[in-house]
Amino acid sequence: MTREKNNLNIHTTSTPIPSTLPLNKNKFTLSTKELTELAKKLRRHVITMIATAGSGHPGGSLSAADIIAVLYFKVMRYDPQNPQWPERDRFILSKGHAAPILYAALAESGYFSVEELTTLRKLNSRLQGHTDRTTTPGVEMSAGALGQGLSFGIGTALAARLDARDYQVYVLLGDGECDEGQIWEAAMAAAHFKVDNLVAIVDHNKQQLDGWTQDIMNLEPLTEKWRAFNWNVIEIDGHNINQIQQALEEAKTIKGKPSVIIAHTIKGKGVSFMENNIDFHGKAPTPEQAELALRELS
Amino acid sequence: MTIEISSRETYGKTLVELGRENQNIVVLDADLSRSTMTNLFAKEFPDRFFQCGLAEQNMIGIAAGLAASGKTVFASTFAIFASCRCFDQLRMCLSQPQLNVKVVATHGGITIGEDGFSHQAIEDLALFCSLPGFSVVVPADAIETAEVIKSAAATHGPIYVRLGRPKTPLVYSQSYQFNLGKAITMRQGKDITIIAIGIMVAKALEAAEALAAEGIDCCIINMPTLKPLDEEAIIKAASETGAIVVAEEHLAHGGLGSRVAQVVAGEKPVPMSFVNLKNTYAKSGKAEELLQRYGLTAKDIEAAVRAVSSKKKTFHMPPSGKLSQAIADIRELKDEEDIGLH
C-alpha B228: how far from its chain's center? Predict the structure, then answer.
């Protein structure tokens, strides 16, 4: 592949969002417009990282960008200087192949430098191909073998109950990932244990590696399934910043049962030739495609 | 008369003791708490017990989440489900991230008996030993079980403990002190070493008495910790007795025999023989019947000792430059065998 030989020279264009984000334990105060811009910036990181690495999964990172932006820059409380802060809200990326979008958010929130992002997937990098809790500050769970994050989230949420802490646990699931039986074991258990500090978010981009979910393994009726498992179900446009924010706020107020946000998204969102293009589930853009993508995202 | 005590009952009682001392201990089970005896903990500490239902994969994930939040977690089910049913979860959630979860499984081996092959964990040790993050322990009796469980609670990181179903004879007195990764010499002997694990330790001791009457003086080593393995003890045994028999209630590959052989082959090659379940699933039957049918009795250990003793006589590592002597030895042996045949 020429991509491997090519010495990429892609730089993320700086945008007029606040240069110094308020990195403290409290909620951020970004406006909807600023969050939209920030999500775009995270998407640019994703393109740069994956193009530089020459491999990775752009589609599922881009579909989750707005959700991640709202979580990390509006809703969640955490302390990048103290990644193990016991009171932090937890974000668990169950769909571990979307690691680039998480790394982008962690870098922008101060867990490590933005420059480190382009070490993705390289030997000796802290940024592994799929998330690894032993190497990356801010990563809660080693993931990539799908279907396991919701169970991990239940354990994390139950620990809050035992220790009388009031943190929230957010678990991001892929829709293809919902093929895994363990997701439904966990769905049953979370409702059984009434863990109301647990919020699952399904990045419902309608595609998985082999094609459209409805053709590979039909999930529908997805909302009814979660409802039947005794979850509070919120259905939103996963690219609408206000809807994401409102859903996360609503989830926090629901007591006695866990909440799931079914976020309708578009795989590859933000880059015209990647949107709904299954080829970009697990393929890196060429340098030319990356340039084009970054222009669209500027 | 031999005293027989159930290791799993000891496990349940030990958990309750630990639970009283340490508020941080939580226990999970997958609809087998009345068999694994974690129900004793559940009764005393309902808030720290999580019944996960028949969903072992989910249980391991929940255990990992609790451990990642600082809890010392015991997760229990039958050995067959703890190993085979949720192997990817063990790998992803516990082994690689080194989370503090103790997978204590009961009903290991064929001695679960009448339930048959679906419930007989005979590959669990190979599976757990293949996980880089895990320690693997099989206690020899109820007394050792209590010590192992206390040690597991006090040692950070993932550990697998295999217990059995039936009551088993005690091989220890109350004063026993377990150290993770350390072998214990149960009986001194100069002719051959039997390295045993779990229920086979009692059988090895029984075999040693019979063999002593024949003039074969056996050293018996209890090797409760498969991982990390006490390599020093193995090398010492190979050096001092020149032959080793390994006895375990497990398939031939990937368990104690394989692991000891790897050390012996690399450090101190001596003849070895193996008492195990070979490469087959077992049938339904009473525990003792199955042990006889599948070759896991004291008599089988005795036979292995005799077999390896004869090899020991002929197994010379020729010192450099003395190959001709070694060839002469082999010729001599051949003559002996010929005489025997006629």
Answer: 12
The type of residue at A271 is: V
> Looking at B4, B9, B44, B56, which residue is catalytic?
B56
Nearest to B57 among A149, A159, A182 (CB): A182
- Report the residue of chain B nearest A87, measured CA to CA: B69
- Is B26 in the A-facing interface, judged by CB distances under 8 Å? yes
Q: Which of A27-31, A266-270, B9-13 has the lowest mean pLDDT?
A: A27-31
φ, ψ at B170 (rounded to 5°)? -75, 135
Name which of A244, A228, A240, A245 is nearest A269 in CA terms: A240
From B30's Cα to the closest Cα of chain A, the distance in A is 12
Domain ranges of chain B: 4-168, 184-314
B136 contact A CB<8A: no
Q: How many CB pairs under 8 A join A and B?
A: 104
- Taking a C-beta distance cutoff of 8 angstroms, is the pair B162, B187 a contact? no
- Alpha-carbon gap: B128 to the closest alpha carbon of chain A (Å): 18
Q: Say if the Cβ atoms of B96 and A148 lie within 8 Å.
A: no
Residue A296 in this model has a pLDDT that exceeds 80: yes
* B1 pLDDT more than 70: no
The answer to whether the beta carbons of residues A258 and A198 sit under 8 Å apart is yes
Task: Return the SS3 of A282.
Answer: coil
Chain A neighbors of B52, CB-CB under 8 A: 189
CATH topology of domain B184-314: Rossmann fold (3.40.50)
How confident is the model at residue B50, as a pLDDT? 98
Least CB-CB distance to A142: which of B26, B71, B97?
B97
Domain covering B4-168 in this structure, CATH number: 3.40.50.970
pLDDT at residue B320, as a whole number: 53
How distant, in Å, are the alpha carbons of A53, A54, A207, A283 from that of A2?
13, 10, 28, 14
Residue A231 token pair = 């979850």
Mutation for B interface: A182, A188, A193, A229, most B CBs within 10 A: A182
The structure's pTM equals: 0.92
Dist CA A151 CA A62 (whole Å): 25
- Across B307-315, average pLDDT: 83
Give whole-number Cα distances, A58 to A207, B160, B297, in Å. 13, 38, 59
Q: Please give the ipTM for the structure prediction.
A: 0.92
Q: What is the DSSP letter of B40?
A: H
Tokens for A194? 């009434």
- For residue B175, the model assigns a pLDDT of 75
Task: Give A292→chain B minimum CA distance, Å.
Answer: 37
The answer to whether A280 touches A218, Cβ cutoff 8 Å, is: no
Cβ pair B61:A181 closer than 8 A: no
Is residue B56 among the annotated active site residues? yes
Q: Do B4-168 and B184-314 agree at the fold level?
A: yes
A234 touching B, CB under 8 A?
A: no
Q: Which domains does chain A have, with CATH numbers?
A: 31-296 (3.40.50.970)
Q: B176: pLDDT confidence band, cut at 50, 70 and 90?
A: confident
Name the band, by pLDDT with cuts 50, 70 and 90, for residue A169.
very high
- What is the reported pLDDT for B173? 84
- Determine, for residues B66 and A185 on separate chains, whether the beta-carbon distance falls below 8 Å: no
